[in-house]
Design a protein that fits this description.
The protein is an alpha/beta fold. The chain folds into 2 domains: 214 residues, P-loop containing nucleotide triphosphate hydrolases (Rossmann fold), CATH 3.40.50; 72 residues, Alpha-Beta Plaits (2-Layer Sandwich). It contains 9 helices and 14 strands. Strands 6-7-8-3-9-10 form a 6-stranded mixed β-sheet, with helices on both faces. It has a 4-stranded antiparallel β-sheet with strand order 2-1-4-5, covered by helices on one side. The longest helix is centred in the middle third of the chain and has 14 residues. It is elongated. It starts with a strand and ends with a helix. The protein binds adenosine-5'-triphosphate. Adenosine-5'-triphosphate binds next to β2 and α1. It comes from Guptibacillus hwajinpoensis.
């Protein structure tokens, strides 16, 4: 079973909030969506979950449109920031309402959720007395309680303490096998750690998507090279960046794919290499370069 988004566009109040979004997700894959504030991430989650009807395009589950076949919505579980919970009810009562909503009973997965998210400890306490983190834990449990195949988690670790973050990360890593997960977070290290695929969104559109397996070519590695030209100007045919000079010493960056070419050129030009270091870029560095600058 595949989840496919086909040319999804969402216009609200004459504003194009989502523009031609295309991607697909297979069983067992986790997709991370990152982007600056206002990029359209939450809107995308809402549209996939059926909380907004797209202006054009489609969301396909099991070869059928979720907008034509509303029962397919029950295959989707969606946690979006600030979950709606009943404040005068306990955790148990909130969970039961969600189970009833999806016409299901407690199941193996719901037990895992309750146990893993530490809800046992406050199951009989009314939600109005909860801390932000407790609400977040219960919100995640309620949205996934019906054991959906497709799990949408919009900033699930936002209000959580260190232990809560670990609990949610472990849940995604170990307890949601065979599901399709879409996750957003402003903690980019979390996305890097948990996701197989990453989409970078900006202004309502996908500006880049890649598999984390390709990260070595996309995110990583460049080399910092220090050379001494022995009083000559440095002229290279190989593309390098961030060229800085001090006297006859030059420092520059070169990508891993251009490394061999630059070494060959330096050798041919008899330029002395003083030092060479490889520097790993992480998703945060890449994101800052690509989007925030
Ligand atoms: N109902 C609405 N009517 C008009 N504009 C909206 C509506 N909902 C969202 N927007 C706009 O759509 C854009 C995307 O908002 P969205 O909340 O999806 O972004 P986001 O990437 O989730 O941001 P953040 O990282 O801050 O949570 C914003 O410019 C927002 O103002």
């Amino acid at each position: 079973m595949t989840l496919t988004l086909q040319d999804l566009t969402f216009i609200k109040n004459n504003k194009k909030i989502l523009k031609n979004i295309n991607f697909s997700l297979e069983k067992g894959e986790t997709l991370g969506i990152i982007g600056p504030n206002g990029a359209g991430k939450s809107t995308l989650f809402k549209v996939i979950a059926g909380l907004g009807i797209p202006t054009s395009g489609n969301v396909i589950v099991d070869n059928e449109s979720v907008f034509d076949k509303p029962h397919l919505q029950s295959k989707i579980g969606c946690f979006i920031e600030n979950p709606v919970l009943y404040p005068y009810m306990t955790a148990n009562e909130n969970i039961n309402i969600h189970l009833n909503l999806f016409k299901c009973k407690e199941n193996e997965f719901s037990e895992v959720l309750i146990e893993q998210l530490g809800i046992e400890k406050f199951k009989d306490l009314k939600v109005k007395n909860y801390s932000l983190g407790m609400k977040q834990r219960l919100g995640i449990a309620c949205s996934l309680i019906h054991n959906p195949d497709i799990v949408l988690l919009d900033e699930p670790t936002n209000a959580l303490d260190v232990n809560g973050v670990k609990v949610v990360k472990d849940l995604i890593k170990y307890k949601t096998k065979n599901k399709k997960i879409i996750l957003s977070s402003h903690r980019l290290s979390e996305i890097e750690e948990l996701c197989d695929k990453i989409i970078i969104m900006n202004n309502g559109e996908i500006v880049e998507q890649f598999n984390t397996k390709e990260r070595s070519t996309i995110l990583k590695t460049h080399y910092i090279i220090n050379v001494d030209t022995r009083k000559k100007d440095l002229k290279l045919n190989t593309p390098v960046s961030d060229l800085q000079s001090e006297g006859s010493e030059y420092k520059f960056l070169v990508s891993s794919e251009n490394m061999n070419y630059v070494l060959k050129e330096l050798g041919e030009k008899n330029i002395k290499i003083i030092s060479m270091a490889n520097e790993e870029k992480n998703l945060e560095d890449y994101f800052m370069e690509r989007i925030m600058n």
